[in-house]
Amino acid sequence: MNTSIIKEFAAVVGDDNVMASETDRHAYSYDAAVLNSVMPALVVRPENSETLGKTVKLCNDHGLPLTVRGAGTNLSGGTIPHPGGVVVLTNGLNRILEINAEDMYAVVEPGVVTAKFASAVAALGLFYPPDPGSQAVSTLGGNVAENAGGLRGLKYGVTKDYVMGIDFWDVNGNLIKTGSRTVKCVSGYNLTGLMVASEGTLGVFDKIILKIIPPPKAARSMMATFASMQAASETVAAIIAAKIVPATLEIMDNFTIRTVENFRHAGLPTEAAALLLIEVDGHPAQVADEAALVEQICREHGAGELKVARDAAERDAVWQARRDALPALAKLRPTCVLEDATVPRSKIPAMIKVLEDISRRYQLTIGTFGHAGDGNLHPTILTDRRDTKEWQRVEKAIDEIFNRALELGGTLSGEHGIGLAKAKYMVLETNRGTLDYCRRMKSVLDPKGILNPGKIIG
Amino acid sequence: MADLHQLAQMFRELDDQLVSCMRCGMCQAVCPVFAQTGRETDVTRGKLALLDGLAREMLTDAAGVNDKLNRCLLCGTCQANCPSGVRVMDIFLKARAIMTGYFGLSGTKKAIFRGMLANPRLFNALTGMGATFQGLFTKKVDDMLGSSCARFNSPLVGDRHFKTLAATPLHKLVPELDTPAGASGIRVAFFTGCVIDKIFPRVGQAALEVLARKGVGVFLPAQQACCGIPALSSGDQATFDKLVAMNVQWFTAREFDYLLTSCATCTSTIKELWPRMFKGDPALGAAIKELAGRTMDISQFLVDVLGVTEAPAAGGGKVTYHDPCHLKNGLGITAQPRTLIKAAGCAYTEMREAGSCCGCGGSFNVAHYELSKKIGSRKAQNIMDAGADILATSCPACMLHITDMLSHKQAGIKVKHVIELYADSMKNQG
Ligand SMILES: Cc1cc2nc3c(=O)[nH]c(=O)nc-3n(C[C@H](O)[C@H](O)[C@H](O)COP(=O)(O)OP(=O)(O)OC[C@H]3O[C@@H](n4cnc5c(N)ncnc54)[C@H](O)[C@@H]3O)c2cc1C
Ligand code: SF4
Ligand code: SF4
């Protein structure tokens, strides 16, 4: 990039916050998606609201593609920059501006790390439920821009259910204010909603107003084994049909169970074809009732072993098993492709069959676990990207996973976003007209097309 | 100097290990350097991507990559927490060796590693002189000490509040020992380590006292060399190999049950790096493995082997414990040192982030003192917030850096090795 432009950026954010060396640029050329990296021309790190706005405007003035980057943990290529573009880091904008316990909302800058926010909220006796597996590093800006989910999605919803308002910068450097600090707000278009899951393509978040809630008073966790994935998913349906909404309802297939057990040696039932991990929470009396009922339903549906956690340590052990799923699988082969095609809950048994079939036909190792309660499975393909033959089969398998999930009335992505990785499938889930509508909208809001080009709508 | 293509070829040998990084970014949560700078090149994922970039010939600035590679404490926290099980330390050490092969070792480092560390007698003599003429250190000697034995810092650099070289090093106080097993029926060899020998001989003395009181026979060979970590972390494979070979020769001269050290860094180097990173005489392979298998941290030995248990608190100041990275991350030793503190009858209080790095990181401390100080300052604050009167730990290198950091804050908190606390309590019992 020519030095006079670099100087303009430096004048805005300071010399220390402009990185132009080859090594620095290379370190912002990728994210957690299994995709080729692309080096940006420049990396800038604004440290306050005003310089963030000026940075956006400067990019627009020079027609430079701009990719905002939080922790770079998204799994869909959302932060892989456009060639010649600028990466704008948000980790200099990491202040929690307000936690209002009385009105139960918080105002944060976009670079605040999810887990740090959740623990600051918890310290005041309140609760911020969205808990993506990456929360120890992911940023709230990234969570909102991807509409991240987590283990508590079934009962508590996902990030979008907690976003009350967003102030964002448009390409001209105007601060756009949306939403409010009130539970109710109907002033104008729901631009907040438009920003959620926009993956940096429509505006750059400056501040986010998040809803917080009182925490549940009690919780109980349990683990049940089943002789088939079918039986386990029927149990899931039966629990919901009994009008119980567990906070968490996770499933693991036999391959994942065995891998996790190999990894942690925590005494998981390696013979079981499927494992359900369940947590109900709420008022103590309700928790006791619901736990008993869930236990009964599990037994009626042929649960083998059923373990109810009696104390915090046992509860931890249940969730450690779930947290171990990805790390344990990831260690098996060099490349780990984590998908998140999602189907209506009732279609989980069908989707599981599809995955077994795909794994067999393409001779691929696929471990499946995920959020059974909300139909969001994580088929995890274990492979080696350097093995070009196998990699071709992986690509075909991914195509097929998406196609079949859509046939079952599902969606391409439950929580990982579209980014670059799934942009080409968008038309399959929606249609030409929908994509045209989105593109027309973007072309007006971002006439030079600088905001994270190539993502979502291609 | 070889060309870039050749360099790439060498890095390609790391490919099998590099490819296991899935770029998940979870290391951002634990890397102490990243916590200070927020720069991707400072965290594991970024460094691995840079090495990968060199291997694939996507990058041309090898010197730039080398600089970033060195902004690392080699604390192993990322490896201990990596969901994908990436062997980060292996990769970084091998990469440093490749880089050193490519750029050559700096003149000063060459003088130190090859001329001094690899000649323990000369090293002892020179530092002996250094202690005598401490106030007269010339710039040159200063440089040498500052960047030599990773953890070996000169007292005279910048505004460091340093421990000076001990007036009499351990090898002068206790030149050698060869006592038979006593009441315990156990005999150990004692690996002193440079920092204990030359800066904290009192720690070595405490360890030897405790062993004697416990009826443990000790073999302390008259000659010992550096464990090799300073050379290895600067990519000087040849010196590392030489040091390991010398140590193996001297320590296999007698029979004993365990090889003990009271330096976390030496323990982890001997246990983890000697077997994996030694590239010298293959005939030594078996002996190295065998020795590594019998190597133990002193508190682990006392608690796990001799069965030392907690005692009721006997008053005195409150103690808090800092986990040295080299015990916690690689070896998973966190309980035994705490048990030993309690066995000494001390009132114990746990600090926040006890397991996070103090920021010393060997030559990192020298090359990136400001950063090292920032990381250490957070550690010092946590120690102060814990309301402790004494900071105990298991690594003399951590002791050095934390002493510096606490002294900057004028905290008035003593820094001790856990074995000193235990030795004191035994003495008091008579
Ligand atoms: C191990 C692991 C586990 C994961 N588990 C989950 C999970 O359980 N649930 C889940 O939903 N996801 C999960 N993810 C995916 C990922 O962590 C989430 O998508 C997360 O929200 C990304 O946050 P980030 O800060 O890393 O954002 P980044 O990856 O940096 O960015 C994501 C997107 O947000 C945009 N963006 C970031 N900041 C702004 C801003 N200020 N304004 C506008 N746009 C912005 C970026 O341009 C990009 O398009 C996981 C990932 C990993 C590696
Ligand atoms: S945590 Fe491990 S796998 Fe993940 S980015 Fe860091 S080094 Fe790579
Ligand atoms: S070894 Fe320590 S300093 Fe180096 S990258 Fe890993 S966590 Fe960071």
Number of strands of chain A: 16
The largest beta-sheet of chain B arranges its strands as 1-3-2-4-5
The number of strands of chain B is: 9
So what's the overall shape of chain A? globular
CATH architecture of the largest domain in chain B: 3-Layer(aba) Sandwich
Distance between the termini of chain B: 63 Å
Rounded Rg of chain A: 23 Å
The distinct bound ligands, ions and cofactors come out as:
flavin-adenine dinucleotide, iron/sulfur cluster
Low-confidence spans of chain A:
none
CATH class designation of the largest domain in chain B: Alpha Beta
Rg of chain B, rounded, reads 21 Å
Average predicted local confidence, pLDDT of chain A: 95
CATH topology of the largest domain in chain B: Rossmann fold
CATH fold node name of the domain at 216-332 in chain A: Alpha-Beta Plaits
**Strand percent estimate of chain A:** 15-25%
Structural class of chain B: alpha/beta
Helix content of chain A: 25-40%
Most strands sheet of chain A: 7 strands, antiparallel
Description:
The complex is a heterodimer of chains A (458) and B (430). Chain A has 458 residues and is an alpha+beta fold. Among the domains of chain A are: 3-89, Uridine Diphospho-n-acetylenolpyruvylglucosamine Reductase, domain 2; 96-211, Uridine Diphospho-n-acetylenolpyruvylglucosamine Reductase, domain 3 (2-Layer Sandwich); 216-332, Alpha-Beta Plaits (2-Layer Sandwich). In chain A, 36% of the residues lie in helices and 19% in strands. Chain A has helices spanning 3-13, 22-26, 49-61, 114-123, 140-146, 153-156, 191-195, 229-241, 254-264, 284-300, 312-330, 348-361, 388-407, 426-429, 432-445; strands at residues 18-19, 42-44, 66-69, 86-89, 96-100, 105-108, 163-169, 175-179, 204-211, 218-226, 248-253, 274-282, 306-308, 335-338, 365-371, 376-383. A seven-stranded antiparallel beta sheet of chain A has the order 13-10-12-11-15-16-14, with helices on both faces. Chain A has a five-stranded antiparallel beta sheet with strand order 5-6-9-7-8. In chain A, strand 7 and strand 8 (175-179) form a beta hairpin. The longest helix of chain A is centred in the C-terminal third of the chain and has 20 residues, at 388-407. Chain B is α/β, with parallel strands linked by helices and 430 residues long. Chain B folds into three domains: 4-104, Fumarate Reductase Iron-sulfur Protein, Chain B, domain 2, CATH 1.10.1060; 170-304, Rossmann fold (3-Layer(aba) Sandwich), CATH 3.40.50; 307-428, Rossmann fold (3-Layer(aba) Sandwich). Chain B contains 24 helices and nine strands. In chain B, helix 23 (396-408) links the parallel strand 8 and strand 9 (414-417). In chain B, helix 20 packs parallel to helix 24 and helix 22 (369-385) packs across helix 23. Classes of the chains: A alpha+beta (458), B alpha/beta (430). Chain A binds chain B through residues 19, 21-24, 26-32, 34, 37, 45, 71-73, 89, 91-92, 115, 134, 136-137, 326-327, 330-331, 334-336, 384-386, and chain B through 15-16, 19-20, 22-26, 28-29, 38-41, 46, 49-50, 53, 58-61, 64-65, 67-68, 83-85. One iron/sulfur cluster is lined by residues 30-33, 44, 72-78, 88 of chain B.
